[in-house]
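Handout, page 2. Input:
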Amino acid sequence: MAVVSLRVTERVVPLTSENGSNERPGEARAMRLSTILLVDVRGWVLLQERDEYAPIAPNQWGMVGGRVEDGETFEQAAYRELAEETGLQWTTGLSLWRDGHFRYSHAATANHYNVWTANTTLSDEDIVLGEGRQIIFVEPSAILSLGLSESSAFFLPQFLQSEVYRAMRD
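Output:
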């Protein structure tokens, strides 16, 4: 498909590119990401240690989740990612905590994140590792000392200090 352009005061602005987005040719496309923070009965948070093969943040700790696929809502992606990475086949129970943007230090554009939360009575033994080195519930006081991915280092402190997290622990 050809790029359709509109001339505006001597500057050409693409209206639609080949993939249907409004990005300029050669410009990085912002990702849409859906991540999940499950909190167990102790108040510990489920996190994933990524392995060396991870395309983003290898060998770092992060939130469970990933990209929103074309035609998929953020919520649908959250449940799909939860199943793919942990084996948990949930269809309800997640609540949206944060709808925001985060830009990695090496990136030109900010990615759009939805961060979902839920309480759970599950334990590490209930989680099936579908991706990464390990996925475990981590004690809140230890989270910030882990080698966190940039996005997790941005969102997790905010979550741990939030009223939502405090209410989940009560």
